[in-house]
Design a protein that fits this description.
Helix content is 32%, strand content 18%. With 280 residues, it is an alpha+beta fold. The model is unreliable at 1-17, 30-37 and 224-232 (pLDDT under 50). It contains 7 helices and 11 strands. It has 4 domains: 1-38, no CATH class; 39-127, no CATH class; 130-181; 186-240, no CATH class.
């Protein structure tokens, strides 16, 4: 295709599968524009991407933003369908060259750095058992390599700063326990007293409220037939932790001590009345 503007001609690559002649490209001149419009894959309307990763991935391109979801718990993989998209090249002088990108070309481009995490383009609409096994082997080998790198960096100085999130995710994904792969536990608020507790506990350690009746009954801490209201009922006052009472008493005594100290200092600097007589 030749542009109508003589000063900025543009040429498209030939539609045949013959290799490009770069010598001819040089002879076209510096003002010529070569646009590659040939598809590297098939011309299917859709392509399927399968993921066995436990992480969500968001990839941004000029033709759209794509989300590859994490594999749901209990599921062998997550699947996302990619469709062909249209894009355009800006040739300058308010000229644009529109073209279509096939679904498989988009899928292959999205997985440039994600194949090692167990993400791949399916040959069909859904992944086969062989494709899943190959992806699992490739991911496990990569994650074992990351764990080995994490062990090496940790042995040098026991510094958490040298360990990246990628190394921690690899250890967590394979269920490998490492000191450098420690993940802080997220706490929840007790519905009865509002103190921070672990989300999986059956009884609040601060007020004694039953948070999980089934788990509490299993360990003999409460009746399984307790209602939802009784699960959040706090224990009697005499069974509660006395640390809060002792802390409040210490704060009260400290406040009283400071009050009397201020009074003593103020009285020491009070002016002596004029009519006061000194006793001999």
């Amino acid at each position: 295709m030749t542009s109508n503007t003589t000063s900025h001609p543009s040429t498209t690559a030939p539609a045949s599968s013959a290799p490009r002649d770069f010598a001819t490209d040089v002879r076209r001149g510096p003002r010529d524009i070569l646009v590659e419009t040939r598809s590297n894959g098939d011309a299917s309307a859709t392509a399927a991407i399968a993921s066995i990763s436990d992480q969500d991935w968001h990839i941004s391109r000029t033709h759209g933003v794509y989300h590859i979801p994490a594999r749901a718990p209990g599921e062998p993989y997550a699947l996302v369908t990619i469709t062909s998209r249209g894009d355009a090249l800006d040739l300058g002088d308010n000229r644009r060259f529109p073209f279509t990108i096939s679904a498989r070309d988009i899928a292959e481009d999205l997985l440039q750095d994600l194949r090692e995490h167990g993400i791949f383009v399916c040959a069909g609409e859904r992944p086969s058992a062989e494709e899943l096994a190959s992806a699992t082997t490739r991911r496990d080998a990569y994650y074992h390599q990351l764990i080995s790198e994490g062990d090496t960096m940790w042995a040098r100085g026991h510094s958490f700063r040298e360990i990246s999130d990628l190394h921690r995710r690899a250890a967590i994904a394979l269920g490998v326990e490492r000191e450098w792969a420690y993940v802080p536990t997220r706490f929840a608020d007790c519905p009865a007293c509002g103190e921070k507790v672990k989300p999986s506990v059956a009884v609040c350690k601060h007020c004694g409220a039953i948070l999980d009746a089934e788990k509490a009954a299993k360990h003999g801490l409460g009746a399984s037939s307790s209602s939802a209201a009784s699960r959040a009922t706090p224990a009697p006052p005499h069974q509660r932790d006395s640390r809060g009472t002792a802390r409040r008493a210490r704060q009260t005594n400290l406040a009283r001590s400071r009050h009397f100290t201020r009074l003593s200092v103020a009285q020491a600097f009070l002016p002596v009345p004029q009519n006061a007589t000194c006793e001999k």
